[in-house]
Design brief:
alpha+beta, 3 domains, elongated, 36% helix, transmembrane helix, transmembrane, membrane, 4-stranded antiparallel beta sheet, single chain, 6 helices
Length: 236
Amino acid sequence: MHRGLGLLVAIQVVLWIAGGLIMASLDLQRVRGLHYAAEQPVESLELKAVTVSPAQVLEGLDLGASAVAELRLVQWQGQPVYRVRPLADTARPQLVSAHDGVRLSPLDEPTARRIAQADYAGPGRLVDAQWLETVPSEARGRRGPLWRIQFDDAIDTALYVSADTGQVVARRNNWWRLFDVVWMLHIMDYDTRDDFNHPVLVLAAASALLFALSGVLLLGLAWWPRGSRPAAGTGR
């Protein structure tokens, strides 16, 4: 049984150990791309420029107060804006100017480029901007549409900017991509890469535990004094 379990779990046990070593060795600041994130200055809200009321914003969006989960007035890109998050999951957030009521979302490419450039403090140049209706795997958990802004630094940094809210919602680079692959192998979730309660992982972990316990048992029998060992076929 010990040998059979060893053959069954050996590869995954090696992946668990190697993966744990790699993840423990990586700098999470670099994995998250924070070492290339620019420090954002605190912008004071220009209340004098606010000429549109929340009620006017909701009226312009054809939304009632009961249909809104959140309405926030913030300073963004040098101007006051309303960020509106509808209650319905199927409805997209909206960005509306608090000065003239103009809807600013979805963002155009020049605006997305400016946001990403202001957020980035690395050595690379902005080389590409791509509009994405479908959220890619490395930005999973975020809501589309997104702008993917690519920089040409040594670790292939990509920033994902929400076309609806105007916020940088994900920072990705080669360190993150390595961590993501190792994490996938570690939790054995080859699809969404965020489920560590699935049956395959539980079965592999249980098999590894049985392998370890059977090894302890065999070690104990090897250390058992020869004269005290039960004789084969005696029933003792």
